[in-house]
Amino acid sequence: MSRLITCLWFINNNGEEAVNYYVEAFNSAPGNHVAKLGDITMAPKASEEVSGIAEGSIMTAECELDGTNFMFLNGGQVEQFKLNGSTSFIIECETQDEIDFFWEKLSAAPEAEQCGWCTDKFGVTWQIVPRILDEMMRDPKKADAVTAAFMPMKKIDLETIRVAGKT
């Protein structure tokens, strides 16, 4: 059976650091978040010339974060594969404690933060949002008030969104 795996290319060869950081973060988060470290693949000699990654160093590191499979590839300095905000990963949170935890762990670029979106120290973009947000946005009677409430926010304030959804 095939698996769907999101592969993230790290130009600074810090894929191993990133995978360990995310696994630790998800496993220590409040709520029911679960992470597992997966396979680690070492770079063979044949990859040195093209990638610039030394034989025997870590080429890929895999993990599973809340049921989603990731591979972190130390691919070398290829500018077109530099991480950017055009792809983001959504962490749905049940409580403000979860939102606060992930925001503190993952928010590293204040200039990129808006409406629950943040970029971490590795350049990966995340959306840290309450699970109820989608439900509220699908309700035409709540969407305007909820949108007006969360649009000016950096980190999402769950109670403010709940109050806006009641109007």
Q: How many domains would you count in the coordinates?
A: 2
Strand arrangement within the widest β-sheet reads: 1-4-3-2
Large-scale geometry: elongated
- Uncertain ranges: none
Q: What Rg do the Cα atoms give?
A: 18 Å
Percent range for β-strand residues: 25-35%
CATH superfamily of the largest domain: 2,3-Dihydroxybiphenyl 1,2-Dioxygenase, domain 1
Q: What descriptive keywords fit this protein?
A:
single chain, 167 residues, alpha/beta, Signal recognition particle alu RNA binding heterodimer, srp9/1, 2,3-Dihydroxybiphenyl 1,2-Dioxygenase, domain 1, four-stranded mixed sheet, 6 helices, 7 strands, elongated
Give an overview of the whole structure.
The chain is of the alpha/beta class and 167 residues long. The chain has two domains: 1-79, 2-Layer Sandwich (Signal recognition particle alu RNA binding heterodimer, srp9/1), CATH 3.30.720; 83-167, 2,3-Dihydroxybiphenyl 1,2-Dioxygenase, domain 1. It is 35% helix and 26% strand. The chain is built from six helices and seven strands; from the N terminus they run βαβαβββαββααα. The protein has helices at residues 15-28, 45-51, 96-106, 132-138, 140-150, 158-166; strands spanning 5-10, 35-42, 58-65, 68-74, 88-93, 117-119, 125-130. The strands form two sheets. A four-stranded mixed sheet has the order 1-4-3-2, covered by helices on one side. Strands 5-7-6 form a three-stranded mixed sheet, sandwiched between helices. A hairpin with a 2-residue loop joins strand 3 and strand 4. Helix 4 (132-138) crosses helix 5 and helix 5 (140-150) packs antiparallel against helix 6 (158-166). The longest helix is centred in the N-terminal third of the chain and has 14 residues, at 15-28.
